[in-house]
């Protein structure tokens, strides 16, 4: 799979003291939807700013399109929205996009197509100043897509929107992704990343805590919930199981985290052979939220 962007050991230190991005490395592959997830101040916008050449890196490397073109030329194939949408208030949606076409040197023919994609075709002759924040954000997405970029970069795309507006933006992101455009979005919202992204990079205070598929992040953290008449005995027996990573007692149940995937039957028969009969055995998965809280606990 083609690599769109490769970041290696990236660091950003503001004013010689604030280490906003610490040794971050990850790769963006063509066709996937990536989320950079982290609480406010974790370095998401700084990372995006660096790869878009609006923030200077302190050290490390980033490379667009496998280094085949200069960053300057590569950025012509990148559509990005990293600030609040800003257009001419007294011009219509269509006029604003045509102006962008002139600047980017693309054909006006794309204007209607992109307005339709973001659900604004019927409003194309209305002035920008009459738009809701959600509509402004959708117009910004249409604008970023005018030259059919390889990758669309969005920083907190649903910030400040009402639930309906959030839903519309997320649906649009999914449609754009389904058409083959790679997407990189930064968000502090777990459910946003869980709902729209295939891959996630978790940042906290500039440190990358996890990177991989959203599916694996959840899958790798399955655990068992067990209950038996004597929880102490249950604990002692499980402590001797080679695959057990940690045991947590919670409301009369024992939560068993494994070093590797193990079938429920295996745990059950292991305990039964050692004279423990379970009252309760459930295999559970952490939600991304639990996973995220676990990762960012310290
Ligand atoms: P996020 O987008 O994850 O909320 P940012 O990348 O905006 O985080 O910020 C990361 C850290 O860097 C924060 O502590 C922020 O205050 C600091 N920071 C961001 N931009 C600047 C700047 N221009 N000058 C100084 N500090 C900055
Ligand atoms: Mg930010």
Automatic annotation (TrEMBL):
Domain of life per record: Bacteria
Matching PANTHER family: ABC TRANSPORTER, ATP-BINDING PROTEIN (PTHR43335)
A Pfam family of this chain: ABC_tran
Keywords: ATP-binding, Nucleotide-binding, Transport
Domain ABC transporter, chain residue ranges per copy: 5-230
InterPro entries: AAA+_ATPase, ABC_transporter-like_ATP-bd, ABC_transporter-like_CS, P-loop_NTPase
Family per similarity comment: Belongs to the ABC transporter superfamily.
Protein name, UniProt field: ABC transporter ATP-binding protein
GO terms, molecular function: ATP binding
């Amino acid at each position: 799979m083609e690599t769109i962007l490769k970041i290696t050991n990236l660091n950003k230190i503001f004013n010689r003291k604030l280490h906003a991005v610490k040794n971050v490395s990850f790769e963006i592959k063509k066709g996937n939807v990536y989320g950079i997830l982290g609480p406010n101040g974790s370095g998401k916008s700084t990372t995006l700013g660096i790869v878009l050449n609006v923030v200077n890196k302190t050290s490390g490397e980033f490379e667009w399109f496998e280094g085949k073109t200069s960053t300057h030329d590569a950025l012509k194939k990148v559509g990005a929205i990293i600030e609040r949408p800003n257009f001419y208030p007294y011009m219509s949606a269509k006029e604003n996009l045509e102006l962008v076409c002139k600047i980017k040197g693309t054909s006006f023919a794309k204007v209607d197509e992109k307005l339709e994609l973001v659900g604004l075709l019927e409003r194309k002759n209305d002035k920008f100043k009459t738009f809701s924040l959600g509509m402004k954000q959708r117009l910004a997405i249409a604008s970023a897509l005018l030259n059919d970029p390889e990758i669309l970069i969005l920083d907190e795309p649903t910030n400040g929107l009402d639930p309906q507006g959030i839903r519309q933006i997320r649906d649009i992101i999914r449609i754009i992704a389904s058409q083959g455009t790679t997407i990189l979005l930064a968000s502090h919202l777990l459910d946003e990343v869980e709902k729209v992204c295939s891959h996630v990079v978790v940042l906290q205070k500039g440190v990358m805590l996890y990177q991989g598929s959203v599916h694996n992040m959840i899958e790798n953290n399955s655990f068992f919930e067990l209950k038996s008449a004597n929880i102490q005995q249950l604990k002692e027996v499980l402590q001797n199981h080679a695959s057990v990573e940690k045991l947590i007692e919670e409301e009369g149940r024992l939560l068993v985290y494994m070093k590797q995937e193990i079938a429920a039957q295996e745990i059950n028969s292991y305990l039964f052979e050692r004279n423990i009969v379970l009252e309760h055995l459930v295999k559970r998965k952490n939600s991304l939220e639990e996973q995220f809280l676990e990762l960012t606990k310290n």
